[in-house]
UniProtKB/TrEMBL annotation:
Domain of life (superkingdom): Bacteria
Entries under SUPFAM superfamilies matching the protein: Acyl-CoA N-acyltransferases (Nat)
UniProt protein name: GNAT family N-acetyltransferase
N-acetyltransferase domain boundaries: 3-169
Family matches, as Pfam families: Acetyltransf_1
Lineage, uppermost ranks: Bacteria, Pseudomonadati, Bacteroidota, Flavobacteriia, Flavobacteriales
Transmembrane segments: none
Length: 173
């Protein structure tokens, strides 16, 4: 299968929200914490700032995610490090099992270098051993759990949350 990574466009907004709903519905079957309904303006802003991404295969969106270069409420003092942060990976069920996170990691390594960033970082809410194992198999180092101190302005699932932190040092061989 041929996979292409590109910026999402405003035409993708409905599909992005469909994939978020599928991911949230799945989370609700497995976990206490799950994604809230995200604000449409947040996604539109990410799209306009070229921070919302997609993997496309055979004319279909296989996966979406967002990036940022700052994440101070979650990463606290580590936010000073040059990093790209990945958020809200949502996979189209038709493409599960295709190692899309691995494809995102390979893309993110190049993206980080192009933007003079040393780290690729991600977080997940809670202590989810399945996701921890999955992300470490994809090349992330699990840095441990962190109880968030200031969640004002973050999506609702971060309120009073403990997060699992993940990192890849792109300069480490």
């Amino acid at each position: 299968m041929n996979f292409q990574i590109q910026n999402s466009s405003s035409n993708d907004t409905d599909e992005i929200f469909r994939l978020y709903k599928i991911a949230t519905d799945f989370q609700k079957t497995r976990f206490i914490n799950h994604w809230p309904e995200f604000d449409r303006k947040l996604i539109e802003t990410e799209i306009s700032e070229n921070r919302q991404w997609k993997i496309v295969s055979e004319g279909k969106i296989a996966c979406v995610w967002a990036t940022t270069f700052n994440d101070p409420q979650i990463w606290e003092e580590r936010n000073e490090d040059p990093a790209v942060y990945i958020h809200r990976i949502a996979t189209n069920p038709d493409f599960r099992g295709q190692n899309l996170v691995g494809k995102i990691v390979e893309w993110a390594k190049n993206y980080a270098k192009e933007n003079q960033k040393q780290f690729i970082r991600m977080d997940t809410v809670g202590d989810n051993s399945g996701l921890i194992n999955h992300y470490t198999r994809c090349g992330f180092e699990f840095l441990g759990l962190l109880k968030l101190k200031n969640t004002e302005g973050l999506p609702a699932h971060y309120e009073n949350a403990t997060v699992s932190l993940f990192e890849i040092d792109v300069n480490h061989k």
